Amino acid sequence: MRKLQVQGVHHITLVGADRQTSIDFWEGVLGMPFVFEQPNLDAPDESHLYFDPGDGRLITVFTDESRTPDRSPNPTAIGNLHHIAFAVSRATYTQAARRLEERGIAHSGEKDRGFMDSIYFRDPLGQLIELACYKFEPPDGTTHAEVLHEAHRLRVMAGDANIADIHLADALESLSEQTTDSLSPDRTPKDPYSRD
């Protein structure tokens, strides 16, 4: 028996209402360029809209002009999608609440998640959307997931409940030492201010 190794999210497809609601939300609110459209190849009466969330991957939406938006929260029972999170810059994150409020969109307010900051709101079809901003940048040659894996290891060793800034800072230091060579034979912390 062998695994089927995945290499990232290819795309996420949602069932939308009418075409314009999808364009107005995904491009008009979240700034995702509307990159192409074709019929839903499994249901030719529907359209299939493709949006770029900023990393060249795709968010796609099946639309049908006979469907109207329903803002009721989507079900969150076992097997249902709870929310979709999109990465935003720190600058965008600091503006998110204000820009949602300008549109009259209710939101959660800013949430500190230990390793990231988040804000939540619902799309016009009731799907919960999260805008997330990491509190760190990974060292060159490493990924956010690698930093979080190391921060988790450090958190567990410390007996702490969740990842916090101290775990991230120590993980960044550890990974930097592992991925970047130095001519120094001893890379332990030093105090250059204590010399006479």
Automatic annotation (TrEMBL):
Listed Basic and acidic residues bias regions:
187-196
Ranges for domain VOC come to: 8-134
Annotated region described as Disordered, given as residue ranges: 176-196
Q: Which domain of life is it from?
A: Bacteria
Q: Which residues form a coiled coil?
A: none
A single Pfam family, by name? Glyoxalase
Could you tell me where the Polar residues compositional bias lies? 176-185
Q: What name does the UniProt record give this protein?
A: VOC family protein
User: Could you read off the lineage of the organism from its UniProt record?
Assistant: Bacteria, Pseudomonadati, Pseudomonadota, Alphaproteobacteria, Hyphomicrobiales
